[in-house]
Amino acid sequence: MAALEVRDVTFSYDGETDVLRNINLTLNDGELVCLLGVSGGGKTTLFNIIAELNRPQKGCVLLNGEDITGKSGRISYMLQKDMLLPYRTVEDNVALPLIIKGMKKKEARRRAVELFDKFGLESTQKKYPSELSGGMRQRAALLRTYLFSADVALLDEPFSALDTLTKSDMHRWYLDIMSSIKLSTLFITHDIDEAILLSDRICLLGGRPGAITDEIIIKEPKPRSSDFNLTEEFLSYKRDIISRIHSQS
Q1: Where are the domains of the chain?
Q2: Which positions of the chain have pLDDT values less than 70?
Q3: Which helix (H) or strand (E) holds 43?
Q4: Which value, to the nearest 10 degrees, does the dihedral of the CA atoms of residues 95, 99, 105, 106 take?
Q5: Distance between CA atoms of 84 and 87, rounded to whole angstroms?
Q6: Which CATH class, in words, describes the domain spanning 2-75+152-248?
Q7: At what angle do helices 134-148 and 164-181 cross, to 10 degrees?
Q8: pLDDT at residue 150, as a whole number
Q9: Cis peptide before 209 (omega within 30 of 0)
């Protein structure tokens, strides 16, 4: 059974002009699937539907086989910015989803702090977001996302604001943590290199209305070598993806 399945989803804001049409997408347990395409293709709109911020005119969303269409609060969603509250400590920021769900603050903090070492956040509990580096803030935001929903995470360009070296470190770290906690991830990016380095599969979303036009399977096993982006295999994937994206325009 798939961790997440989108079936025949069609959506429009005005009820007349489709933004997305007949979207079908599957995310299997432990997979990382990237949505890749030009800006305005409907990727964030699709995430909003999966997270139940918007309801489709047609189709449904299944989580572990259960129809969750119209049921908010079931899938975690991390935006481009970390959205940490500057006036709360790191532990209180991370524990917030558990508190919102009704857990007492003391227990929520305890549950959150238990995972700080695993997420590379040791000794940051009492610090404030302004005291953390960009990479550490993203780790805190990812832990908060995980505590909201431990099965599937939607990540919308979470590493786009990081410098190249920090982003590379975060890529390796995120793949390790995904494997460790058995998390399935649907990932939006405009960065072709990032998509190839992280993905099990890449789905190209394009056109007007938006539709999934292609799927590319990245066959190299994970973890991939640190110089994979310098290999002919990597460049072959990149040329193929660029060609497919250009054919959409």
Answers
A1: 2-75+152-248, 82-148
A2: 150, 249
A3: helix 43-50
A4: -60
A5: 9
A6: alpha beta
A7: 30
A8: 65
A9: yes
